[in-house]
Write a structure and sequence with these properties.
Distance between the termini: 62 Å
Strand content: 25-35%
Shape: globular
Bound molecules: glutamine
CATH architecture of the largest domain: 3-Layer(aba) Sandwich
Number of domains: 2
Number of helices: 9
Largest sheet: 10 strands, mixed
Structural class: alpha/beta
CATH superfamily of the largest domain: Class I glutamine amidotransferase (GATase) domain
Helix content: 10-25%
CATH class of the largest domain: Alpha Beta
Order of helices and strands: EEEHEEEEHEHEHEEHEHEHEHEEEEEH
């Protein structure tokens, strides 16, 4: 057994037993409150650069399967958990949790007092940390090698187009670190899908001749992605558009709104969100650390559609005249409830209503 330590930039040290890859690593320390879904969370590209703490105390009990990865790449920088169950019991399980993180080159700590760690994160709000073998003197934070400024998106997004044939309308999935479940949701609606790199120029998107565009989720601070705001705006002016999580933030920023770092984010599978049109509350899957400031949104152009019941933060919006909608939560779920899966159907209806053509000359 090898001991390991999570050192927070604020000075606290959490002890555990080292698991997975031997590599020491650093990143923002975050927590997710979902009871299940560790496989989807670890492979969700939006967690790139982050050390993920599982609040649920037993991790690994249903193993790892061949279908639930949200990407083919390593996403989280490291995982922190309490009790590791490495003798899974599930008919679809093909590997143990330890085998999975070892195979993906992710380090982790088990037997950590995750309740105290989560309290510390909530107290400090945003906190970075480093996973080390020895709790001795550490190099300064600047040399921890934490990625910023779009490097995170670059590290997870596709570099080339990927085309998926189908019988329905053609949707370009602009990839800032998409989750496979988003692609699956589009394919389920019979869409042809072209996954395009996040930095695809607008002219090339036009050449792809999409009927609609979905701007994906992704890691990092949305406000650092300023070079892409003009393209995002042009997309929304030309095609029916759906933004999910980072995609939602980028649409808001492209129209002049501002984003803010939240105290400790929303990461979990039971975040209540109120649909302001029907008054109904939906349970949503969430994973974000930033939010759009509602007061900064041009309400002449956008209607607020969803609001978080717990902290009243903005959870979704709709353009008043263009078929452009965006949500801060994850309608594709995985992990989490699928109450808001209908968002994909609404998007496809808007795509179909637009007649399969760019309906505004640009
Ligand atoms: N899941 C996402 O797209 C996350 C968006 C952004 N990186 C945030 O943390 O707010």
């Amino acid at each position: 057994m090898t001991k390991g330590y999570l050192i927070l930039e604020t000075g606290e040290i959490f002890e555990g037993e080292w698991i997975g890859s031997k590599q020491e690593t650093a990143g923002e320390v975050v927590f997710n409150t979902s009871m299940t879904g560790y496989q989807e969370m670890m492979t969700d590209p939006s967690y790139a650069g982050q050390i993920l703490t599982f609040c649920y105390p037993i991790i690994g009990s249903y193993g790892i399967n061949d279908t639930d990865d949200e990407s083919g790449k390593i996403s989280v920088s490291a995982v922190i958990l309490n009790d590791l169950c490495d003798e899974p019991s599930h008919y679809q399980s093909t590997a143990t949790f330890s085998e999975q993180i070892e195979g993906m080159g992710i380090p982790g700590l088990k037997d950590v007092d995750t309740r105290s760690l989560v309290s510390a994160i909530r107290k400090h709000q945003t906190v970075r940390g480093k996973l080390v073998k020895s709790p001795g003197r550490q190099s300064s934070l600047h040399s921890w090698g934490i990625k910023t400024k779009g490097e995170l998106v670059k590290s997870v997004a596709v570099e080339n187009y990927h085309y998926f044939p189908n019988s329905g309308p053609h949707v370009v999935l602009l990839d800032f670190g998409y989750k496979k479940s988003i692609l699956k949701a589009l394919l389920k609606e019979n869409c042809k899908v072209t996954i395009a790199p996040f930095d695809t120029p607008f002219q090339e998107i036009q050449e792809l001749n999409p009927d609609g565009v979905l701007i994906s989720n992704g890691p990092g601070d949305p406000a650092e992605l300023t070079p892409y705001f003009p393209t995002v705006k042009k997309i929304t002016e030309a095609y029916p558009t759906l933004g999910i999580c980072l995609g939602h933030q980028l649409i808001a920023l492209a129209y002049g709104a501002e984003t803010v770092k939240m105290p400790f984010g929303h990461r979990g599978g039971n975040h209540p969100v109120k649909d302001l049109v029907t008054g109904k509350v939906k349970m949503t899957s969430q994973n974000h650390g930033y939010a759009v400031i509602e007061q900064s949104l041009d309400q002449e152009q956008f209607d607020v559609l969803f609001r978080n019941v717990n902290d009243k933060s903005l959870e979704g919006m709709q353009h008043r005249t263009l078929p452009v909608q965006s949500v801060q939560f994850h309608p594709e779920a995985h992990p989490g409830p699928s109450d808001t899966e209908y968002i994909f159907k609404e998007f496809i209806s808007q795509v179909q209503a637009a007649g399969g053509k760019a309906y505004v000359e640009v």
